[in-house]
User: Which sequence fits this backbone?
């Protein structure tokens, strides 16, 4: 039987986490919804954390999260891998391990079914790598493919890592380079090297599983993952939840190969400007800040790295461990300060 190739990118506009609704408008829309409280709810929506966490008993808490989006690449299998890795990351950001996952898939009924199968196969392989169990899902028709997972994870109630535990004096560690959204935009206009594009895809496929294990080893209390709201957006949410201020040193932030050069060309996706609009009133930007560096920290990431708060005396050990566990570009790129006028200070 002849297999008809289906290039997913030809059906997508904004792909990956760049497809998120504007954060400012979403905040307005959700502001008046009633909130459900319970003494067993360890993490709810109040702090805009990566997932919800509810205590089941003294030894077990459930982590609940979901994520899905349009394609970031042409190959269905790679898209499935990346979308799954991105959804799984929320469990890891909370310090948990994956238990079960369910597929969420929208797919055009007139497109080849073998591509649908490959999307699901890519997702299943990542769930298997995460040592979780894929237990079903739901599929509907849509003109543009969209895929992701609804996930249940496990964590000890006393070892939940949240975005609300940062303390003044902590250092900020980032485990993956940024610039994925800009690289994807460069691909669409034919301005990115194939090797740089593939590096970005491989970076997005890389699970944060080992990162979560290292965080638990060093008793980390505060972390988040970097996705659709960019490095600065997620840092801002962490600062807000923790009631601190954060300093980002852009000269220390690692970038994916080719991302800075694309930013110099003006190849900036719309999500950069939406994120900028969302955070700008809460942030201070040094007058000497290079424009490209500013826009790169606004760039929406898909399946990005972990942003970890750590006491200075643990810096050398945790960085060494993270590098040894598959995050070679792990760096200190900022620090936590006592709360002042702005949430984030960028230099």
Assistant:
């Amino acid at each position: 039987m002849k297999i008809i190739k289906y290039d997913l990118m030809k059906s997508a506009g904004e792909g990956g986490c760049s497809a998120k609704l504007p954060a400012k408008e979403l905040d307005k829309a959700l502001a008046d919804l009633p909130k459900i409280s319970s003494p067993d709810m360890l993490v709810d929506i109040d702090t805009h954390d990566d997932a919800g966490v509810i205590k089941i008993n003294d030894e077990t808490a459930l982590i609940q999260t979901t994520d899905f989006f349009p394609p970031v690449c042409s190959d269905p299998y790679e898209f499935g891998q990346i979308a799954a890795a991105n959804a799984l990351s929320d469990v890891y950001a909370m310090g948990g391990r994956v238990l079960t996952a369910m597929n969420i898939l929208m797919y055009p009924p007139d497109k080849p079914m073998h591509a649908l199968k490959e999307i699901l196969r890519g997702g299943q392989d990542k769930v298997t790598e995460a040592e979780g169990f894929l237990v079903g899902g739901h599929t509907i028709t849509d003109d543009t493919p969209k895929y992701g997972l609804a996930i249940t994870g496990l964590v000890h109630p006393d070892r939940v890592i949240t975005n609300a535990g940062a303390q003044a004096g902590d250092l900020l560690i980032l485990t993956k380079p940024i610039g994925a959204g800009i690289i994807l935009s460069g691909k669409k206009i034919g301005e990115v090297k194939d090797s740089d594009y593939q590096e970005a895809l491989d970076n997005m496929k890389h699970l944060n599983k080992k990162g979560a294990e290292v965080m638990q080893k060093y008793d980390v209390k505060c972390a988040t993952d970097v996705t659709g709201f960019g490095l600065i957006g997620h840092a801002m949410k962490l600062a807000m939840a923790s009631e601190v201020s954060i300093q980002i040193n852009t000269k220390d932030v690692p970038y994916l190969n080719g991302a800075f050069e694309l930013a110099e060309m003006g190849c900036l996706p719309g999500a950069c400007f939406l994120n900028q609009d969302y955070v700008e009133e809460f942030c201070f930007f040094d007058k000497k800040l290079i424009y490209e560096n500013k826009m790169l920290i606004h760039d929406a990431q898909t399946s990005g790295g972990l942003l970890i708060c750590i006491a200075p005396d643990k810096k050398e050990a945790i960085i060494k461990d993270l590098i040894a566990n598959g995050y070679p570009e792990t760096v200190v790129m900022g620090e936590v300060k006592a709360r002042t006028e702005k949430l984030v200070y960028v230099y």
The chain has two domains: 8-159, 171-346. Residues 101 and 134 are 5 Å apart (CA to CA). DSSP finds eleven helices and 13 strands in the chain. The longest helix spans residues 76-93.
